[in-house]
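ok, trying the design again with the full structure, not the truncated one.
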């Protein structure tokens, strides 16, 4: 399933902005020599194949051997919402790959890891996931310290310094979700709870995760340029209103002090909500507050529905599955990955629509061209919509290290070429509503999924996770989660009414796996860490998926799905 919305390259060789990307051996991570020259591999920006942005999920066979159609594709590929003009629901119907991507490069999906997983005991894996690789024993940021001490190792542009993101979140959240340093200062990061996208991002399929957002300094400061928590809180609510296109409840605030009529009642009084009312053609406008209000007037920052302002950052940690004192699945201290994104520049609706139109024409004229990947391992990869993505991942010892160019390239497809995206992002649009605990601004370690009702779909009013399961009974793209299928369907494949009724009231019933499954998934991923074989697939699969995945497809081969579904 082809991921587009990025200007295509003119040849079959991929280029980065730092130079030629050469095609290396497909298994260079697995050789001892490659391990010995990890710094050189990092700087070369090596690719083993030309389409790392097309994920393994897109090579699955939606039709099982008994003829049942399992449509997991619609969760990502769907009729989009403006200003994402992609509308890629047709991708559900065929493998719309460029020719170079017809051969499945995700070799880890075909390996049997039963023996390796069996060698790891439950106690060993629990001890491993409970050890933090983000903090030192003294509470310092281990990854930031590692980057400072190893600048030359990761200096791919040879300017004598590390030019990528330096971790600065302490994951120390207060009762409003704001992150603070050990000294009590605000870092600017604010965490939020959200509905995980159906499929691989559900913890039952291998990982817990969290996301924080940070707006640019002007959005945190008052008009005098000083940090102001009220200003920052209101600006975050304004962004939430714009992304969701709905009114957002806030704590009472003095509009006269801010100089903005937030609730649109025509007076500067006390407001307890940000009213969404943005239709420039009809003379309806919204405004930020504080220093960002000034910059908006000066056109240094911009405001539009479903678009984040310039300088917006996201921090996303992906973690193992731990067990709490009741043996319930919880988030681990150890991180599998730390992912970072920043909006570098603004693109208006016309420019975003033009991107799609150019992509469609390019795809039609030159169907075999793969995506141009812009960036470097050091600074991350930048997509045409204005965002830069960068990642860190476990090395063989379990410590976090910067991802290579190819490892980061896997971010590009999902964050630039899917109909479900909102300004290249998924989670913030799915943030829990303001009537939730702490208005949805909290970390999963402050409150778990338990008791959270199913999200309601906009198009038909159906519970979202229930709808997903009815169209993809195993709850994952690889049809490998037999635990979920057995929980929600009987042996004849008929839904269990009691299970679905429970899901509507408590999404943790679906999202969290059993203890035994959690431990097995942890062990399967640990094998991939030991191999450092991420470029061949990171899904914690134990048994090979030969019956579920194509090793090779024909370009535009039909998937077997005959009716498209909408994610919204």
């Amino acid at each position: 399933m082809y991921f587009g919305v990025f200007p295509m390259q003119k040849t079959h060789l991929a280029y980065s902005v730092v130079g030629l990307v050469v095609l290396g051996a497909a298994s260079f991570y697995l050789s001892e020599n490659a391990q010995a020259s990890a710094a050189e591999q990092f700087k070369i920006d090596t690719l083993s194949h030309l389409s790392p942005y097309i994920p393994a999920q897109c090579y699955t066979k939606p039709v099982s051997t008994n003829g049942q159609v399992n449509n997991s594709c619609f969760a990502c590929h769907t009729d989009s919402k403006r200003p994402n003009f992609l509308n890629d629901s047709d991708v559900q119907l065929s493998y719309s790959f460029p020719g170079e991507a017809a051969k499945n490069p995700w070799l880890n999906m075909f390996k049997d890891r039963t023996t390796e997983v069996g060698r790891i005991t439950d106690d060993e894996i629990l001890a491993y996931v409970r050890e933090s690789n983000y903090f030192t024993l003294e509470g310092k940021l281990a990854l930031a310290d590692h980057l400072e001490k190893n600048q030359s190792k990761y200096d791919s542009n040879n300017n004598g310094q590390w030019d990528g993101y330096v971790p600065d979140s302490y994951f120390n959240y207060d009762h409003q979700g704001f992150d603070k340093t050990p000294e009590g200062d605000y870092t600017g990061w604010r965490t939020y709870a959200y509905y995980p996208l159906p499929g691989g991002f559900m913890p039952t399929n291998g990982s817990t995760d969290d996301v924080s957002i940070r707006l640019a300094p002007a959005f945190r400061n008052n008009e005098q340029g000083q940090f102001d928590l009220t200003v920052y809180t209101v600006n975050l609510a304004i962004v939430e209103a714009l992304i969701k296109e709905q009114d957002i409840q806030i704590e009472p605030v003095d509009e006269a002090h801010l100089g903005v009529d937030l609730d649109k009642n025509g007076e500067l009084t006390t407001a307890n909500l940000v009213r969404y009312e943005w239709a420039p053609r009809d003379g309806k406008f919204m405004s930020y507050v504080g220093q960002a209000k000034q910059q908006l007037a000066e056109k240094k920052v911009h405001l539009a529905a479903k678009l984040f302002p310039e300088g917006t950052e996201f921090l996303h940690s992906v973690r193992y599955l731990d067990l709490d004192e009741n043996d319930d699945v919880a988030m681990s201290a150890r991180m599998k990955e730390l992912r970072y994104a920043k909006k570098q520049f603004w693109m208006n609706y016309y420019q975003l629509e033009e991107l799609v139109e150019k992509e469609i024409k390019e795809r039609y004229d030159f169907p075999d061209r793969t995506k141009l990947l812009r960036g470097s391992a050091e600074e991350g990869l930048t997509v045409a919509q204005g965002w830069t993505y960068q990642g860190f991942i476990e090395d063989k010892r379990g410590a976090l290290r910067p991802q290579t160019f190819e490892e980061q390239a896997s971010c590009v497809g999902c964050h630039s070429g899917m109909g479900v995206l909102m300004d290249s992002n998924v989670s913030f649009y799915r943030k829990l509503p303001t009537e939730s605990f702490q208005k949805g601004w909290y970390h999963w370690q402050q409150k778990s999924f338990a008791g959270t009702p199913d999200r309601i779909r906009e198009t038909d009013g159906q519970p979202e996770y229930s709808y997903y399961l009815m169209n993809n009974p195993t709850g994952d793209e690889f049809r490998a989660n037999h635990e979920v299928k057995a929980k929600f369907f009987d042996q004849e494949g008929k839904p269990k009414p009691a299970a679905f009724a429970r899901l509507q009231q408590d999404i943790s019933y679906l999202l969290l796996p059993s203890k035994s499954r959690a431990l097995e998934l942890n062990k399967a991923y640990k094998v991939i860490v030991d191999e450092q074989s991420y470029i061949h697939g990171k899904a914690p699969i134990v048994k090979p998926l030969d019956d579920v995945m194509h090793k090779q497809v024909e370009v535009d081969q039909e998937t077997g799905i005959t009716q498209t579904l909408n994610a919204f």
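Keeping the full-length input from now on. The longest helix spans residues 349-365.
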